[in-house]
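Example 344.
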Amino acid sequence: MALTIGLTGLAQSGKTTLFNSLTNMANASETGKGRPMAHVQVPDARLWALSEIFKPKKTTPATVDFLDMPSGGTSSLTPQAVAEIRTATVLVEVVRCFEHPYLEGVSPVADMENFETELMLADLKVVEGKLERAKKMDAHERSLIESLAAPLSDGDYNAIPTFNEEDRKLLSGLGLLCLKPCLVVANIPEHELTGESASFHQVQEYAQSRNMPAIAVCADIEAQLAELSDEDRTVFMEDLNIEKSGLEQLISMCYKRLGLQTFFTAGDDECRAWTTAIGAKAPEAAGEIHSDLQRGFIRAEVIGYDTFMTCKSLNVAKDKGLLRVEGKEYVVQDGDILNIRFNV
Ligand SMILES: Nc1nc2c(ncn2[C@@H]2O[C@H](COP(=O)(O)OP(=O)(O)O)[C@@H](O)[C@H]2O)c(=O)[nH]1
Ligand SMILES: [Mg+2]
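Predicted structure in complex with guanosine-5'-diphosphate:
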């Protein structure tokens, strides 16, 4: 399941600082050719615990792609930036809550309003262009696009229709930014990481009014964390009273917002984490591994991660009757270890 997390927000809010630290920290493998993109490993301690037990030749975390928004001086949404960010699955709006060396004051709510307006203007251009150019558009599609024109030109974010899944698919080709799931990251100063942060409070309240989840990170600290070895990082985070790195918080918030979960395959060759939708049945999850496994699905041997950790061996689990055999209707649970039986 390809997941691209696009970092957006006003210029100078800390997107690139955050992008660089996230990609440093998570052993970003390959960066997108010429694009500000990086494959980032999804942190999951369970996978490494499985790897300790199975000692496989290869351990493969799930990955997500992070996309930094190209900057254009002081303006945030340049045409290039808009084009990049339209390809993202989910938008993460970075909001400046730190004192900037040459920008005046800290006004997160006004910044969020400004950025929202920019998003809506960018989408309005697409919507108007589409309505003008496409003379022979399907009537239903036209009515969907028309229903967006008024809220976008009024700048009324909450009046943007939510559409059902089918209609969303119809509209997906337009890459409308306002229809993408959006999460908010308040980039707060270091001294506000512990205790109360008034600016985060404001961000949270605004985000809530838009039905968006919000977290607080300090991009500066994330950048410092990214420079450290895993052990040093743990110590530094304990000192600062940070439980989870920004990367972990961000990815788990994206998974939650998009209704995603993790399952594992484990053996002597490879231990691997996979991403699938919450509610996915076994064949659909198998399809994440390979389409043959979905097509030729027969059954799955299943054990939940926590149950597996009580015996730490698939053979022992089998003897104890803990390894279940499930069919096509089985709904995969977060942390399941699956062995797919298939025939093509
Ligand atoms: N004090 C402080 N400065 C930051 C923080 N994050 C970013 N900056 C600074 O703000 C400026 C803009 O950051 P940058 O990441 O380039 O912003 P972008 O335009 O959103 O990509 C740079 O000078 C950063 O060093 C932070 O958490 N605290
Ligand atoms: Mg930047």
